[in-house]
Design a protein that fits this description.
This protein has 224 residues and is of the alpha+beta class. It contains eight helices and eleven strands. The strands form four sheets. Strands 6, 9, 10 and 11 form a four-stranded antiparallel sheet that branches. The radius of gyration is 32 Å and the shape is elongated.
Amino acid sequence: MQRQDEPEVNLEQILERVRAFFGRFNLGGGGSLAYIVFGIIVLALLAWAATGFYTVQPGEEAVLRLFGKNNNNPQGPGLHWFPPGPIGKNVIVRKDEVRRLELGFRGDTSVPAESLMITGDENIVDVQLLVQFDIKDSAAFLFNTVDPEGITMRDVAETSLRQVVGARNIDDVLTTGKEDVQSSTRIQLQSLLDTYETGINVIQVQLQNVNPPSQVQDAFDDVV
């Protein structure tokens, strides 16, 4: 079966049709097409610039990036403008939000891999910790560490608590020394977070359940 050859493309004819179309918008001179193109470009630029307006609510802060780099000029509450993408970008962070980290437990479920630790007198104790924190430096929080309120915060909190518990005997951790454990853990935790420049501020550290391991709980109760 044969097919007819496709007609040859006539560029002159196509260009003539384009000229005829734009000729309808003749503004009295031969430069009408240039005016139309210029007008389209101006409208596109205005539409692009309009997307650069953004609003920061109370308690929030906008971190600005220009060509991918932090411009070190965070913006507070109000209406602002910053070059939109791909030139600039703004990331709004809720600074006054109190975040929390559960260490050694998730809700009503225990996480022994995090909570079981060795005391200074070589006993094992089950310690659960609740940490409350907010953001003091938005740019550092966003760019200096990976997942700052997740894996980074959890690793640093666990390290701090293990160091504090490991320097005390089991009786202090279980009874009279709880307040000191909380205070020392908070100081150690904040120090490490500042060393890593995470931009996180520790508000409060609270011990939750502090017990001997379940395997020896009955024996410990008998001794008490």
